[in-house]
Amino acid sequence: MKAAHTIKERLIQSVGDKITIEGVNYGTFPSAEQIKNLGLEKLRSLLKNSRKSEYLFNVSESFAEVDEDFLRKAPIEEVKDWLLNIKGIGEWSAHLELIRGLGRMEELYGNDRMLIKCAEKVYGSKISKSELRKIEEGYEAYKGYWEYYLRAGC
Questions:
Q1: Full-prediction pTM beyond 0.85?
Q2: Phi and psi based region of residue 131 (left: phi greater than 0; alpha: psi -120 to 50; beta: remaining)
Q3: Topology, domain 1-63
Q4: Which whole-number Å values give the CA distances from 36 to 24, 48, 55, in the listed order?
Q5: Can you say whether residue 72 is alpha, beta or left, with left for phi > 0 and alpha for psi between -120 and 50 degrees?
Q6: Would you give per-residue pLDDT tens digits along the chain (154 residues)?
Q7: Could you tell me where in the chain the CATH 1.10.340.30 domains are found?
């Protein structure tokens, strides 16, 4: 987490826009377009991590070129497949982007073992996969939120 925070701060300070609200200066996280325009070599020198720089550049290029309506309105499996085809985006990153970045709550990550462990911690008793599915179905269109917050609290 500390390394991720350091990278994020470098990007904010070097590439992001600056805004002032009520006399307080803030840096914004750069847009995909800003990171893409920075170029891979400058990104590498800024982040000091070649692999992460390449992945971030790939993600930025992809997001800079995609239609936002596709991301928000296309069938979730199509959007997930699009995400998974970006070098540097894995199953968990795609799931997190769907939930946190796009507000697409209609899918669960599906890592049952970890989710069961978290549910048992929160609900206080042993839970089977079928019991877990019953609980999540009660959240209907918000089951992605339920899973996300359940994991966050675990």
A1: no
A2: alpha
A3: Endonuclease III; domain 1 (1.10.340)
A4: 28, 17, 11
A5: alpha
A6: 788 899 999 999 999 999 999 999 999 999 999 999 999 999 999 999 999 999 999 999 999 999 999 999 999 999 999 999 999 999 888 988 998 889 888 766 655 678 888 899 998 889 888 888 888 888 888 888 888 888 888 8
A7: 1-63
